[in-house]
UniProtKB/TrEMBL annotation:
Keywords: ATP-binding, Isoprene biosynthesis, Kinase, Nucleotide-binding, Transferase. One of its GO terms (biological process) is terpenoid biosynthetic process. Residues 67-149 form the GHMP kinase N-terminal domain. The active site is at 11, 141. The keyword ATP-binding applies. Pathway: Isoprenoid biosynthesis; isopentenyl diphosphate biosynthesis via DXP pathway; isopentenyl diphosphate from 1-deoxy-D-xylulose 5-phosphate: step 3/6. InterPro entries: GHMP_kinase_C_dom (IPR013750), GHMP_kinase_C_sf (IPR036554), GHMP_kinase_N_dom (IPR006204), IspE (IPR004424), Ribosomal_Su5_D2-typ_SF (IPR020568), Ribsml_uS5_D2-typ_fold_subgr (IPR014721). Its EC number is 2.7.1.148. Residues 217-294 form the GHMP kinase C-terminal domain. The gene is ispE. Catalyzes the phosphorylation of the position 2 hydroxy group of 4-diphosphocytidyl-2C-methyl-D-erythritol. It comes from Halomicronema hongdechloris C2206. Belongs to the GHMP kinase family. IspE subfamily. ATP binds at residues 99-109. This is 4-diphosphocytidyl-2-C-methyl-D-erythritol kinase.
């Protein structure tokens, strides 16, 4: 029986600016994305019956057609209609380590891993560009999740310019177990309150993108300067999520007070992260935050910046 096992890394947003509306209902974004080595393990295995089966050890992750990993496999079957007649079906096993509904793109990482795994299992020979184009049809974060590392993401997040990354930094991630934030809700809320800051014509959008490309975050990454990266952290969605979720707001405040290089909410939240220069610093921060908040519902992880998105295991 053939099988492939892959590691699928989570991402954090070091920078997220919303610059406009799009006719397709999404928002025009300028983001800086970073992979971290908090990763799910995804295994694709040939199956006799011509079907797609999902198994996952996390109770909140659906195992039906709504799972993004299922949708990735279904998209390949749609593109290559005879593939199951030749190779049979597939069982996809997801071992979850990335928290669910956390703003860390766990579902997108799983979909990216399935695209890479099935490309191998079904001998499809897809190029990186073909994988990314298919990924963009599944979700805005999937193209980044495929490659990983450090990138400027524009459009709805699927247009990527990869940057020279920084593998040395560490990050403390924290999330309340019972809390998740709906991504569509966060973007709608932002639109309701801040659409006056949007630009609509292409020239102004390109100017905003250029401002980020030559701005503090990208400059700090270029200089490999952790302190400057920490100071340049920005996420527009904090303006809607933090006022609506006082628990997340307080968590962010406490984490920022404890030190580190800088603190931010990732994506639409509710995960909050603090950057740290060393593993020891990240572990100390973890200890301090959990002592200070003393809440059994609070989950904390220490992870490291990583240059890869999906990685094949031996
Ligand atoms: P994003 O920031 O991309 O909106 P997220 O990181 O906040 O996503 P995910 O963990 O990707 O959140 O999942 C969001 C929702 O999608 C979950 O509540 C879950 O019901 C559903 N879902 C579908 N497929 C998956 C999957 N493979 N892993 C996790 N959640 C999934």
């Amino acid at each position: 029986m053939r099988l492939y096992s892959l590691l699928a890394a989570a991402k954090i947003n070091l920078y997220l600016e919303i610059i406009g509306d799009r006719p397709d209902g999404f928002h025009e974004l300028v983001m800086v994305m970073q992979s971290v080595d908090l990763a799910d393990r995804v295994t694709v295995r040939s199956l006799g019956p011509e079907t797609i089966r999902i198994r996952c050890d996390h109770p909140e992750v659906p195992t039906d057609g709504s799972n993004l990993a299922y949708r990735a496999a279904a998209l390949l079957v749609e593109e290559f209609p005879n593939i199951m007649a030749k190779y049979g079906g597939v069982e996809i096993t997801i071992e979850k380590h990335i928290p669910v509904g956390a703003g860390l793109a766990g579902g997108s990482a799983n979909a990216a891993a399935v695209l890479v795994g099935l490309d191998l299992l079904w001998d499809l020979g897809l190029t990186q560009l073909e994988l990314q184009t298919l990924g963009a049809r599944l979700g805005s974060d999937v193209p980044f999740s495929l490659v990983g590392g450090t990138a400027i993401a524009t459009g709805r997040g699927e247009q990527l310019d990869f940057l020279y990354g920084l593998d040395g930094l560490w990050v403390l991630l924290a999330k309340y177990r019972q809390l998740s934030v709906s991504t569509p809700w966060a973007y709608q809320g932002y639109r309701q309150q801040f659409s006056h800051t949007y630009v609509s014509d292409d020239v102004s959008r390109q100017a905003r993108q250029a401002r980020v490309r030559s701005g503090a975050m990208v400059t700090a990454l270029g200089r490999q300067d952790g302190h400057q990266i920490g100071q340049a952290l920005q996420n527009d969605l904090e303006n809607v999520v933090l006022p609506a979720y006082p628990q997340v707001d307080r968590l962010r405040q406490v984490m920022a007070e404890m030190g580190g290089l800088g603190t931010l909410m990732s994506g639409s939240g509710p995960t909050v992260f603090t950057l740290a220069a060393t593993l020891e610093e990240a572990e100390t921060l973890k200890h301090q935050v959990s002592e200070r908040l003393a809440d059994t519902d609070l989950e904390l992880w220490v992870a490291r910046f990583t240059p890869t998105g999906v990685r094949l295991m031996d």
